[in-house]
Task: inverse folding
């Protein structure tokens, strides 16, 4: 437009100067139209290259922006149905602040809501999930999720101390993965951390659980929290001997109201390690192929956590702020307040081969 107006003015001037000059304007007109078309095209090309333009890059950005408004899918959910535990780990980030456990039928109703909203994997955690009704409640939920909801993956995280062989006999077939928390292969360190009750040797117990997992066809996983007391340990040989499908290695994390600050049941500050210390631990264990590292940054918002009331816990502010319960407002409404970072979930490898059928294990 900025070029057309002076040209139009020139045209009017030429017309005013007479018919001979008018013919000159007639010959200028196609040139004017050509310029307009060329500039117009150049403008649209420039728009494609600029942020927000409609080129492939702009369209992708637009789609990503739109993605932010899409409802989150609870693909993988961690249900901490009890906060009770028989251990007293000094850095525990889901502490025994209540003794509440939902009635079994209510828990099943919530799990069905999650499955209808897109859940593919459920992980039962605590507290210690085997503590309530000696694992019977947990077994019922595991069976329900596999048999009725047909979830591709059902897993448990446990400290392992209360698991009995008869549980595997009743429910092992419905369980894909059993993850056992083990922070050290030195029993003295476990005692320092708070993992242990005196008579149970955590390391010996681990060997027994490994065998049961093999016998009853359950994939075996190990979770370790790297902290001040185990950061110098070399766990390579012990982990390789146990041969888990996955060894999840977390950096000890502070959560206000859980293991730090006001209202907390623990004071985990003395367990903390720096990022550099965590990296040094990872470097030492680089040859262990099943190791999956999780720094504080990766861990904080990349889990969908449900508490004992089936409320999503939002960790964005370094605390666990609860949403309303999915039993009251549904999954879509509650998950909006979860603070879940779906991109980080994918970046940390949150979606992996998680059903034992697909794992094709050499038991
Ligand atoms: S075993 Fe787990 S739930 Fe129990 S105190 Fe230790 S960290 Fe907390």
Result:
């Amino acid at each position: 437009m900025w070029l057309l107006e002076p040209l139009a003015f020139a045209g009017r001037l030429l017309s005013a100067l007479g018919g001979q000059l008018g013919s000159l304007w007639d010959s200028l007109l196609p040139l004017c139209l050509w310029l307009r078309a060329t500039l117009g095209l150049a403008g649209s090309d420039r728009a494609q290259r600029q942020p927000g333009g409609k080129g492939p890059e702009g369209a992708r950005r637009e789609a990503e922006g739109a993605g932010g408004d899409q409802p989150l899918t609870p693909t993988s959910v961690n249900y901490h149905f009890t906060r009770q535990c028989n251990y007293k780990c000094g850095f525990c980030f889901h502490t025994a602040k209540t003794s509440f456990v939902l009635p079994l039928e209510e828990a099943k109703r919530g799990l069905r809501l999650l499955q209808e909203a897109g859940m593919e994997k459920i992980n039962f955690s605590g507290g210690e999930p085997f503590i309530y009704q000696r694992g019977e409640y947990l077994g019922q939920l595991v069976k329900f999720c596999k048999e009725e909801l047909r979830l591709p993956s059902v897993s448990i995280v446990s400290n392992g101390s209360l698991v009995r062989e008869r549980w595997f006999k009743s429910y092992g077939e419905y369980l894909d993965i059993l993850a056992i928390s083990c922070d050290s292969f030195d029993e003295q360190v476990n005692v320092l951390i708070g993992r242990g009750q005196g008579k149970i040797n955590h390391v010996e117990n681990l060997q027994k659980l490994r065998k049961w997992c093999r016998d009853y066809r359950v994939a075996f996983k190990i979770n370790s929290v790297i902290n001040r007391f185990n950061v110098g340990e070399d766990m390579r040989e012990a982990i390789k001997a146990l041969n888990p499908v996955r060894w999840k290695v977390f950096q000890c994390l502070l959560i206000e109201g859980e293991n730090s600050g006001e209202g907390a049941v623990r004071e985990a500050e003395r367990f903390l390690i720096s990022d550099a210390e965590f990296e040094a631990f990872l470097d030492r264990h680089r040859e262990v192929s099943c190791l999956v590292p999780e720094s504080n940054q990766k861990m904080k918002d990349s889990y969908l956590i449900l508490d004992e009331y089936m409320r999503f816990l939002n960790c964005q502010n370094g605390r666990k702020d609860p949403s309303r319960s999915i039993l009251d407002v549904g999954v879509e409404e509650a998950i909006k307040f979860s603070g879940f970072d779906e991109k980080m979930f994918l970046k940390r490898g949150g979606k992996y081969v998680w059903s034992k059928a697909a794992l094709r294990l050499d038991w």
